[in-house]
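Memo to structure team: turn this sequence into structure tokens by end of day. - J.P.
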Amino acid sequence: MLMTLKLHLDCLRFVSWSLVCLVCCLLRASGADAPAGPANSASGMLTVDAVAEAVVRDNPELEFYRAEIAAAKAGRRTAAQWQNPELSADLGSKRVWDRGGSVLGDGVAWSVSVAQSFEYPGRIALRKAIANRQVELAELGMAQFQASLGARARAKARLALAAQQKADAVHEVAQRFRSLLDVLVQRDPAGVTPLLDQRIIEATSVTLQRRAAQAERELQGALLELNQLRGSPAGAPLRLTGKLDVPTNAPPLPVLLDLAATNSFELRMRQTELAQQGFHVELARNERYPKVTLAPFYAAETANDEQRIMGVGVSVPLPLWNRNRGNIEAARAREQQAQASLRATQRDVERRVTDHALALETQLAEMAQWRPDAQAQFREAAELADRHFRLGAVPVTIYVEMQIKYLDALEALLATRHEALEQRQQLEVLVGKPLNSLAAR
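Reply from structure team:
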């Protein structure tokens, strides 16, 4: 009896400990899964660089450039191949007569030959060199498109950030006017001045509502274009985070010009095209010399007697009337065009680098005159004007002017920062490297 009771107690302890362990495991699992909600919600927030990386990785137009590279590589394989040999066969009947007219015999006559053409030495190598430059052009085109695409995505993302800040500020000021207007409407205006003050606030509130709608529309347009660039549905949710901070470590103009002269995608493409046209000229000169065709053959006849013939035929075009002068002159003319295009592109790149560098320098000098907390001070001044207007210490003209000037100053600050970042972005595309890495040298 005691043994049975003890066994029952042991079973109860085992079951209770099992239940406790199960409850602890469930609590631990629920505690581990609890932070997943905020983390997933936070994952919907993307930085400017993250959006640019997504656009460069997922943009649908990249398939066009990948296909262009594949086509250029296929052309390179074709340029390195020999021409296929030609097989020819003849079959007929042969009858032999003697001089008296009597038939000596009938039989079959047939022949087989294989002809293979051989290019003049160096011709296939020139065609391969031209095809290699075509592959290089296709790869440079894709790299240039990716750089431009990243710059465009960053510009749109920064525009969306600026529009979001403007929209938040306009909504804040508009809400301030609406709350003030709700208080004024409940009062009975005694005299003309209070009535006109109320109308001024009402008119300003209507203007601010339109201004807020325009800021929201600008934000929506930027987000829609970003979704299009990254290959997502137009209405896909997208939220951006970050600040419009402008680095001040811009390298000097001579450094930028030297880097653009060696790293600019446009210059590298023009240089590759010039090299390719040089190979075209050499190929046209090489084509003055004919190709040789060798044709081993075998023939047999079985009429009066049996005859078998084996040999090798050689055919070479005689360059009497066509010395390929027209193609040589055309190739030289295209080479001159490539040289002129390279010189024009060099001047254009130099002009654009100088223009963006000077514009960035001007905007950095303008921002250097701002107070570090100018945006916060303007906002505090608008709040101060609101409090004192409610107390009757500030007239309505100063109150309205302060609110409008706060929004105008905010737009000016954001616009200048956005333009400065855009100038830096264009310089990075032209020189082919981030400016932060250059300034760190």
